[in-house]
Amino acid sequence: MIYLDNAATTQMAPEVLQAMLPFFSDVYGNASAVYGLGARARQAVFEARKQVGALIGAAPEEIYFTSGGTEADNWAIKAVAETFADRGKHIITSKIEHPAVLQTCEWLERRGYEITYLDVDKDGLVHVEDVESALRSDTILISIMFANNEIGTIEPIAEIGSLARRRHVLFHTDAVQAFGQVPIDVEDMQIDLLSASAHKVNGPKGVGCLYIRSGVKIHPFLHGGPQERSRRAGTENVAGIAGFGAAARRAARILAEKQKREMSLRDDLIRRLESEVPWCRLNGHRSRRLPGNVNFSFSFVEGEALLIRLDMAGICASSGSACTSGSLDPSHVLLAIGLSHELAHGSLRLTLSEANTKAELDIVVETVKKAVELLRQMSPLYEDFMKNQSLEENI
Amino acid sequence: MSIYSEKVMDHFANPRNMGELEDPKGVGTVGNAKCGDIMRIYLDIDEAGVIRDVKFKTFGCGAAIATSSMATELVKGKTIQEAMQVTNRAVMEALDGLPPVKVHCSLLAEEAIHAALWDYAQKNNLVIAGLKEPRKDIGS
């Protein structure tokens, strides 16, 4: 099997599993308990808080563990909206956010908030000038993702952070795809709130965090206990949190090497697909791009059919085709960067990890090439295109 | 992918009657690029009104390709009246079912057969009982 869906989830690292195991068996104490067994759990949660904070330049007490990235996004946006409702009800976000952000904003819209969904350019970049001109006296939050999950484009986070700070507006970033993949510093980038998830960085599923800058007073998300400084009640998921900490520690250790390796594999894969498969288009920014992200649209073919062909060859990938989501519309991200419906349906996302090899990518290129050729032979769109081409040649 | 039956996977991996016909007696294209499925059916029909040959081309997901393939198998060698009885339900049953979100693919297969029959009827000034003019929504 060749796994190229690391933006969906990653394989847990062995050292992460080792770090979690004691808390499923011997060290079962409640982290709030006074006796030694509880203290050991509490110590593990504290260590994890330090490790996760260290990866983004945050203090441990600014890290609040959640059930994952979706909860962190929900908390950040809903709590800012609710806490600052008397100051204003306007929020700025982009059209290419993850549904955890978009649908939370839509939910707020139905409750009287006004949301500006910024356009992005053809590479998927949010323009800082657009953020600036969308700012109003009643704007209470800017929420722009660090990097896009589909096309990998990395947004100008530091510039947006600086603007937000100058204009005294809170800045949240959904960094689920960027955390542990590219360097992040919440101080340098002037980020007030940041969402991250463990399972995208070789950690366990079901745990993530919201970074809340010290001094940013937003309401608690879950009520009912003193956990997470009384802002997110509920007995800690100690094993998950310990795993998240271990994953963050590992990510910090390997970040530079991982980034270098993935970028080299990525650029090689992009170059080969572009040169070997005609009528394809790279989606997303060529250089301001997550190290492991490759996203192409292939004209005249549909993405799900392509995915099944790849699956038959043992390759795991994903697509922005409607048929993979269960709705009739293709990816909102691909439409936002200006792709036609046909090209959006024909997209293929390959997301690498540092464990992928050149030999694997050789197989991937050959398989994609063959699958696209075969599906084009079946495609009435390709038939019409070729007929028009030969007509033009005859004229 | 496990969301599909073995029959669907078989017809997707080894589509029957895929291709074009040189001088088809009827051609029908249905669907649109917006929702991601376009099907084209070519029919060769003899004087006795029997479908002698049939070919398809499909832009679409696994279910779209498999339903096109199965639909061509079900109408091949049949009379026009028999082909009119090949409903989307019949195509789905022959494929051992489809996931609920893919049912529209089987409807498209039925529409594609009907569109090709309509084209044949138009060219030959015929009226086929129960056949309605196909929807025209090709394009993106």
How would you summarize the topology of this molecule?
The complex is a heterodimer of chains A (395) and B (140).
Chain A: E1 2-3, H1 14-20, H2 36-56, E2 63-66, H3 69-83, E3 90-94, H4 99-109, E4 114-118, H5 128-134, E5 139-143, H6 157-166, E6 170-174, E7 193-197, E8 208-212, H7 227-230, H8 238-276, E9 280-282, E10 293-298, H9 303-312, E11 315-316, H10 332-336, H11 341-345, E12 347-351, H12 358-378, H13 380-394
Parallel strand pairs in A: 1-11, 3-4, 3-5, 5-6, 6-7
Antiparallel strand pairs in A: 2-8, 7-8, 9-10, 10-12
Helix pairs in contact in A: 1-8, 2-8, 3-4, 8-12, 9-12
Chain B: H1 6-13, E1 26-32, E2 37-45, E3 51-59, H2 62-75, H3 80-84, H4 88-94, H5 103-123
Antiparallel strand pairs in B: 1-2, 2-3
What would a concise description of this structure say?
The complex is a heterodimer of chains A (395) and B (140). Chain A is built from 13 helices and twelve strands.
